[in-house]
Amino acid sequence: MKFGPTTTNLGGRTRVLANTNSARSKVGGVTIDWSTVAAVSGSAVTLDGQVIPIGKKYLPYGTVLVQITASRLYGPAATNAGGATAASDGRQTIDATRRGAVFVLDRTITEDDDGIHIGEVFDAGVAHKARIKCGAAGQPTYANLEAALPGLTYASS
After folding, report:
1. pTM higher than 0.85 for the full model?
2. Contacts (Cβ under 8 Å, ≥6 apart) of 149
3. CA atoms within a 13 Å half-sphere pointing along the CA-CB vector of 117
4. DSSP letter at 57?
5. CA 37, CA 59: separation in Å to the nearest integer?
6. 61, 105 Cβ separation under 8 angstroms
7. Other C-beta atoms within 10 Å of 108: how many?
8. What are the pLDDT digits (tens) for 92-110?
């Protein structure tokens, strides 16, 4: 964890997923519980070109983040879709009852990037639907995500 004054330059970063002009970002960001994220077992290259070494933890842009009920930290959605084992800490529920506790990650992050506090998340605006992590094993359905994020709309290619 970093202590003392810190200057963060986000000027060079561009939004990968959301339209900059319409996205409603969470003021202050969210704090990630990295214990809910698995380390990569083989070297990985993300769709936005980042190389993730073996043993490192990362979350790709488009990951649906859900607040963990007990700790109030955030982790990736973990539903029982596709036969996956659902979490039992609050991350398994993505619906209208979880409004304000569900966000979409707007850039790929690693555990080493910014520590545990991440600012680039949003819950409304125009986004690229195909880039949001929904519909696969362990991920929420688009219908559930849209119920939790009623202000989310999709860009037409």
Report:
1. no
2. 99, 102, 104, 123, 124
3. 7
4. B
5. 8
6. yes
7. 20
8. 989 999 999 999 998 888 8
